[in-house]
Amino acid sequence: MNIAPQAAGLRDARPAAAGTAGARDVRAHLGFVRGGGRTVLARQHVPYPFHITRPFWLDPHLPECATLYLQSSSGGMYTGDRLALEIEAGAGAQAHVTSQAATVVHRTPGNEARLSTAIRLRDDAFLALTNDPFILFPDAHLHVATDVTLVPGARAILADGFATHDPEQRGRPFGRLRTELRVRNADGQVMVWDRGTITGAQFAGPASPLGPYRAMGNMVGLGARRGDVHAPALMRRLDALGCRIGLSNLPGECGILARCLAPTGGLLAQGMAELYAAFFEAWTGHAPPPLRK
């Protein structure tokens, strides 16, 4: 899927006034359990602006794995939004939760938008949470925080990213992006705490830490994997797309972190798809099924 904003026909939604008027403080919950030979969505609380499809079972190699598309009914995130999502995968449950498309973050003057995700994985559970990149509009301030509780035997793959777009093509930067990932063990001890902050001015400036690249994605594989991520071959495939990746082992041998830089949001989507295929195969033992978006 090409997430280039120009192709999507996006517009700059400007609130009538800055501040918290109309801001949303919403918490959603998804609970997966295994029963009857497959994973089912046993509990759900999905208030506006969250929306979900029914689960699908798409993987012939993992017929018990449920795939669920997470959607937004509001056209993006707005100033002062506080959106929280809790996902729990019960013992032996296997699920893939993915966004339907990229999420636009509109202007948030004076009050950043925040998306908090809490993931709880029980014994032998597997969860993939793959969000398409956020598209940061001018003066967009976004904080994305993810908290994972991982017990022995559980596995997870997490993906997100961001690209930028100025609908008026005046080169206006986004405000600020903050990201945070914490991984805890069953006792609540923090095993991984990855944090980053960048302003739009730093991102677009001559000394940008991203260099000439204008989109970035992160992918994390957690728990015991069943194969190797073949880094040289993966790097060659992403090089052919014009992307650059780096792979790092996480502390305590609890997983692998990958970062991907891309020239555009569309190429980032392709690069992240390659990364996900490599991680999925390493963690499950076979290639992922194709998804329609």
From TrEMBL:
Predominant localisation class: cytoplasm
UniProt subcellular location: Cytoplasm
InterPro entries: UreD
Keyword Nuclease attached: no
Mitochondrion as UniProt keyword: no
GO cellular component terms, semicolon-separated: cytoplasm
Keyword annotations: Chaperone, Cytoplasm, Nickel insertion
GO MF terms held by the record: nickel cation binding
Role this protein plays: Required for maturation of urease via the functional incorporation of the urease nickel metallocenter.
Family: Belongs to the UreD family.
The protein's assembly and partners: UreD, UreF and UreG form a complex that acts as a GTP-hydrolysis-dependent molecular chaperone, activating the urease apoprotein by helping to assemble the nickel containing metallocenter of UreC. The UreE protein probably delivers the nickel.
The protein, known as: Urease accessory protein UreD
Record organism: Ancylobacter mangrovi
Gene behind this protein: ureD
